Each structure stands twice: as C-alpha cells, then as structure tokens.
Structure prediction request, 356 residues.
Amino acid sequence: MALETTALTAAGIRPGTALDEAVQTRAGIFEMTQDAEASVLRPQDPGPWSHALRAALAARIATLNAEAGLAARYAADAGDFAGLADPGSDGSEQGVTEVVAFMDKVAAKTRDVSGADISALQAAGVADADIVRLCELNAFLAYQIRVIAGLRLMGGVSA
Amino acid sequence: MSTVVRKFTRTVPHWQPRVTPMDLEQATQEQLDALQVTPSNTKVSDYVLTLAHDVESLKVRSPLFNAIMYDKGGMSRAERELGALAASMVNHCIYCAAVHAMRHAQLEKSTEVTDNLFRDGKQAELSPRDQAIFDFAVALSDCPSTAGPEHMAALREAGLDEAEILDLILSASLFGWANRLMHVLGDPVRKDEAGAS
Prediction:
C-alpha cells in the first residue's frame, strides 16, 4: 500500500477496508490522477498563471464545491494570491477579475457557459493558449473533487 | 454556415473551437509527441489541437481517460457510458452527451435507455439498476455534489459491488472534466451542406 494521492487522502480511505481493496485494483488510475494534478497545479511551463495563483484558484473551486479539507490543502500553496481562495473576493485586488469570474462560472454554472465568456477573456487580453490552461485547471478539479466526494460516500465517512 | 446544436441528440455534431487551435506547423517536439503525430499519422482533430495549447495536461489526460472508460474488470462499458452521459446532461455538454449516448446504444444494441433520457431528462424512468446509476451520477455532477448516503444505498440495493461503484464514481467524475473542456472551449454545430468546409 504505497498509494498516496491527494484524492485518497482527502477522502479518508482506511487501509484494509473493502473500499481500499477496490481502490488498489485501480491503482494506476489514482497514480495518473496525481500526475494530472501536478500538470495543472505545478506545470513546468505555467504560462501567465503562476503555481501560487493556480493553488488559490484550486482552493476557491474546492470551496465552491464545499470541499473544505481539499481547499485548505491547496490554499497552503497560494502565497500572495491567498485572498482569492475566498469565493467572496472578486479578484480586483490581484488584477484578475475576468479570470476569477470565468473560473467561478465554469466550476459552478458549467451549463450556462457560452461563447461570450470566452470572448470576455479574449477582450481582457488573455491569449487562447492561456484560456485553455485555465480550462484544464478547472476541469481537472471538477474531476478530482467529485472522486473525493464519491469515495467519501462509499466509505461512509462524513465530510 | 453552421448552426449550433442546442438539443440532446445521438447524432454526433461537429465540434467548432471558440479559440484558435494550435498550428501543427508551429508545434514543438513535446507537442508532436503528445499528439502522437508521425509521418503516417498527421490527422489531428481540432479538439486535440486546442488542448495541445496545454501539452503537459494533454499528455497525462489521454491515458487516464482510456483507463477509466476501458480498463477491464469492474463496471461494464455500457454502464460507464451511462455515468458519462449523466454528467454531460447535467452540464449540458451536447457534444459529450451525443458521443456517449451513441456508444451506450451501440454497446447495448438498443436506443431505449438513451431515447428515454433525451425525451424525459432527469424524470426518465429506467430499470432499477440504470436508475440508481443515473441518479447517483447526476447528483455527483452538481456543484456542490448533492450525492448522499441514500444514493449509495440505492446503488448497493440495485446489486452494484464495490468495484462497480468505484468505476461509476470515476466515469461520472471524468466527465465533470471532459464537459468543462468540450462545452466551454467550443460549440457543437451542424454544417450546412453548401457552406461545409
């Protein structure tokens, strides 16, 4: 049992349980999930979105999803952007208002996202490659957060 | 000219990016490797070329996606498709819903389940097992998740074992990811005959 990943830790999987056994049969998936986390939270080429900003946005999205433990874990790396982890902040202090509004909508009101939301980022001077980077960060978190919520339910552990 | 598709369908639309996909001519070696472009394989979809803007993420995503949807054991492929479809319906990702409804129908050799879902949405009446799977995946796809112990109990009552429930969590969650790329970065469109390019 050498599997140590954010998702399994956050979900509180206990070794030796039936759930732990099921997880072990999908060990490769949990390892790749952890690699995916590194690729969007701590990429070698972060573009204009620093590791600290990414961590702050991740904490914010976890909070929007009522995942307090995961939010705290990401907020620890948010550095100067820590204020963004609070969904009540609009990003004006850090000069990322459009980015924050976009990330909130993609995370929480996915179905309502339209071409106008992409145009708004482009109008704010965000390059297309950097829009894709924001989407990959947001999209990965949607996945990781739901894996954690689902595993916790499976294990009968309360949040 | 093309028309944006707004209703759920099993006829897979064309995906039209809202950002400019990466230009293959300008690609770095790392991007070419991630795209698996070789002299004999130079056809890459606009979707993959769009994601190639974030090549580090693209590289790890494809094997993870394939493992969750296709690895042996655990939940049947058709039921994983149902989990993917439920997420795509919650997020209104027309493109993903079409692909995975079509695959479900192919695997099951029946359109009954996806006909019901597209006609009646979340009120659709399904077999007890499909109903438990669909309802759980829908609840897990909300933000925040509204899945609760009652959903888990329904899955176990319907006969799903631990490995199957784990695979359902993974496939439904994976489409929380896929939908936020497909539905956000592009439009599902039908090209008119005359204006097709």
In short: The first helix of chain A runs from residue 6 to 11. Chain A has one domain: 6-154.
